[in-house]
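Weekly sync, protein design subgroup
Attendees: M.S., D.O., the rotation student, P.L. (late)

Item 1: inverse folding check
M.S. brought a backbone from last month's batch and wanted to see whether the design step gives back something sensible before we order anything. D.O. pointed out we never logged the input encoding, so this time it goes straight into the notes. Structure tokens as presented (178 positions):
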């Protein structure tokens, strides 16, 4: 690790946000190349790199350096994020494949809040947070619990309640389309 890199790392650990920018400038090209080897979509590769730097900031006090550098940790985090993004994409494509080709009537096409977004916004804040982090962002339940400062069991129960409410809301909405 060079002197500039070591100084940036120490500033980052102390909470200096500009140090994160310095490390981003230093490592982003290499991490992006790594992500593009793992993912077919450039935007997903950018997302994987962004996730890695977000996690670096979030976990900065516990990151294990290898030979004084966070690069191996960042490469591993990019690989994990790439796997999660690829897995989420497969689930999404599988869901789309199961969707009927022609519906009885067209679903709303305008950007209004009469659908999923409206149903999500009607959930209590605690349930909204759990749904966003675990379902939309794909974080494991233990990470969601750690992020929100609640037990894993609470995450599971909030997620179950939220999914039930969203399912009921979407069933009612779909019935109105017919």
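Designed sequence read out in the meeting:
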């Amino acid at each position: 690790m060079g002197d500039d890199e070591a100084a940036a790392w120490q500033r980052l650990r102390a909470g200096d946000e500009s140090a994160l920018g310095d490390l981003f400038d230093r490592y982003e090209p290499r991490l992006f190349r790594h992500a593009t080897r793992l993912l077919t979509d450039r935007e997903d590769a950018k997302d994987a790199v962004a996730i890695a730097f977000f996690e670096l900031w979030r976990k900065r006090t516990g990151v294990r350096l290898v030979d004084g550098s966070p690069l191996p940790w960042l490469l591993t985090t990019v690989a994990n994020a790439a796997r999660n993004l690829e897995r989420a994409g497969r689930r999404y494509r599988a869901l789309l494949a199961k969707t009927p080709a022609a519906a009885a009537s067209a679903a709303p096409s305008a950007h209004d809040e009469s659908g999923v977004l409206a149903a999500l916004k009607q959930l209590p804040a605690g349930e909204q947070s759990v749904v966003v982090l675990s379902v939309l962002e794909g974080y494991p339940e233990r990470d969601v619990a750690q992020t929100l400062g609640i037990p894993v069991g609470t995450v599971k129960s909030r997620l179950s309640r939220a999914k039930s409410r969203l399912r009921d809301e979407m069933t009612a909405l779909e019935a109105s389309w017919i």
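Discussion: Helices lie at 3-13, 17-38, 42-58, 71-98, 116-122, 125-136, 141-148, 152-177. Residues 13 and 60 are 6 Å apart (CA to CA).
Action: P.L. to compare against the previous round before Friday.
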